[in-house]
TrEMBL record:
This is Branched-chain amino acid ABC transporter permease. It comes from Aerococcus christensenii. InterPro entries: Brnchd-chn_aa_trnsp_permease (IPR011606). The chain crosses the membrane at residues 21-40, 60-82, 139-163, 169-184, 191-207, 213-230. It is a multi-pass membrane protein. One of its GO terms (biological process) is L-valine transmembrane transport.
Length: 245
């Protein structure tokens, strides 16, 4: 009986924590499904991509690359590059999952995104400080609910894409607007604004000389390394100032 009550409580907490993320995923998922359908993928392919890749930025990038007739290898490398950050997210959750069954750990890793990771990490850290309790089951509710919302939304978007046939020029405009919408909330510091600006300028400068896929990957790698180097330099400078105080 106690176990049933605990599971019900975890379910309610999961819905409460996941709901804001789910609401945000619906329009993005619909847009991703619609754009991927317009880019030439079938509803089945879009559904499988959402379930296996499960990455909004990767799926939007795939739509952009397909519309620009990029090669399969370009698309695959871009997906790996964009989704590689998930390894960092899930590895930082590992210390809270030591006693969890392997299949639950694997499921949580598969269903984790930036938003569900942030929510789960926040709650696990609170529990570590003694502010409430947190288990892998709580984390799974959040991750699986957001995962399901994204997959269903992209499939519905793909079905709508089969009905609503938009001109390619309009779809390219929508895709550009979507990427801008994803970028703006991330521009929280001057460093990020500078890196984003430099990455955009580099992409424009290389566009006449490189294929779209290679250009995007190269700019992503260069801007990521530059951001890492500048942040590391800033932290070293701050540590030096603290020592001098």
């Amino acid at each position: 009986m106690k176990k049933g009550r605990k599971q019900m409580t975890g379910y309610k907490e999961g819905i409460r924590e996941a709901l804001p993320i789910m609401v945000g995923y619906v329009p993005l998922g619909l847009a991703a499904g619609l754009l991927l359908k317009q880019a030439g993928l079938s509803v089945l392919q879009i559904g499988l991509m959402s379930m296996l890749v499960f990455g909004g930025s990767s799926q939007f990038a795939t739509a952009a690359l397909l519309m620009n007739e990029a090669s399969f290898m370009d698309i695959l490398l871009m997906i790996i590059l964009l989704n590689s950050r998930q390894m960092l997210f899930t590895s930082s959750l590992a210390k809270y999952l030591k006693e969890a069954p392997l299949f639950k750990t694997l499921l949580l890793c598969q269903c984790t995104t930036d938003e569900s990771y942030a929510m789960n990490m926040f709650q696990f850290e609170k529990a570590e400080k003694g502010e409430g309790q947190r288990s892998v089951d709580n984390g799974l509710w959040v991750a699986c609910l957001t995962y399901t919302t994204w997959c269903v939304s992209t499939i519905v978007g793909a079905l709508l894409g089969g009905i609503i046939a938009g001109p390619e020029a309009v779809m390219n405009y929508v895709l550009t607007a979507m990427f801008i919408g994803l970028l703006i909330p991330q521009l929280k510091t001057r460093l990020i604004v500078m890196i984003a600006g430099l990455s955009g300028l580099l992409a424009l400068a290389l566009a006449p000389f490189l294929p779209t896929g290679v250009n995007i990957m190269l700019c992503t790698l260069v801007s990521s390394y530059l951001g890492y180097w500048l942040e590391k330099r800033r932290m070293r400078h701050l540590r030096g100032k603290r020592r001098n105080l």
